[in-house]
Amino acid sequence: MKNADDRAASTTGPYSAQPVFLFGIPVDFILFGLTLLGVAVFHHKTLEVALTGLVAVTLYKLMFTGFRQGAGLSGLIFQMHHEWVVLANLFLLLMGFAILSRHFENSRIPEAMPALLPNGWRGSLVLLAIVFVMSGFLDNIAAALIGGTMARHVFRGKVHIGYLAAIVAAANAGGAGSVVGDTTTTMMWIDGISPLRVIEAYVAAVAGFLIYAVPASLVQHRHSPIEKDAQRGLHIDWTYVGVVAAILIIAVAANVIANLKFPTVSDAVPVIGLAVWIVILAAAPLRRPDWAIMPETFKGTVFLLALVTNASFMPVEELPVASWQTALGLGFLSSVFDNIPLTTLALNQGGYDWGFLAYTVGFGGSMIWFGSSAGVAISTCIRRLNRSACGCGTAGLSWWRISWDSL
Description:
Helix content: 55-70%
Number of helices: 19
Oligomer: single chain
Number of strands: 2
Radius of gyration: 21 Å
Order of helices and strands: HEEHHHHHHHHHHHHHHHHHH
Distance between the termini: 44 Å
Largest sheet: 2 strands, antiparallel
Number of domains: 1
Strand order of the largest sheet: 1-2
Shape: globular
């Protein structure tokens, strides 16, 4: 499989027609930016906005500029043929990782974790560290919601809003250096970037954790000290744990073997995604997957694929040169716009320090509540359920006020 830097040469070639500029900006980017703005503003209609934006960009390119692989309908077909393996891998992994997250929750390990917490503000700090570690192999949404549920339990529902922000930050930062911990890093992995080039993001992620986690833990301790009740009769389901481990190990092994031994196959077949689903289905007789979460997961996956496809149509040769400044700017943009399409643009462009980029786009969304899916998930949970089972906060608490000014 070609990596992002190798693919840059083929994806930044000349279009069949030059981009049309408006106020010095390619119209492609204007339409794409309006799509991302619509996602940020109409966050209850994200799928509809993403699909509308994709249709608008597709029609514009069909009528005016053509695609990277050619003009007209044939150009679109060749473009999608070029992208289908990446899109199929992403689809299979996102759907599969939702099952993986639910398997981990059903193992009851999250319920056992509060017993590991020390007393005092250090207990609050360790809880954030648990969220950070969990996010390394779980989706950041699952890690944030598990952390929120744990916090609600040990703080008797009195969770400080700054501590909620820290939970989201830990969930985002914890996955920044793991190719299975965040959709953006998974995309890099699918694109042929070695996990070893991404793992360096943990240098910044750990340093950042100390900066926000310690003051947030102190604030939470003053707000409501930790209270633990030992759960009696709690038994961890190690079969679920074994299935989760098997999914992760087989996914990594399939990617390594395909790239080293059969590179042409990985360019033609979604190897990683298929490997994940083979394990899920093979283990189904042992532990049945929670198929009930698939409809909602499917909608979220289609939303992300629409944004990724839209981003793949962009004239990346018109972007600023890849540099640490550009990567930092993408991180700030990810606090307002979805980081998935921003990552796609960077992958198509090539030339980045991928560990640095993984950290900026992964952690940057923590600055504003709608900048990351974890923040949206917890805010939705709070607004709809308040102090119910996943409410994670006191009555009347609203994530609309969250920013790092809370700390």
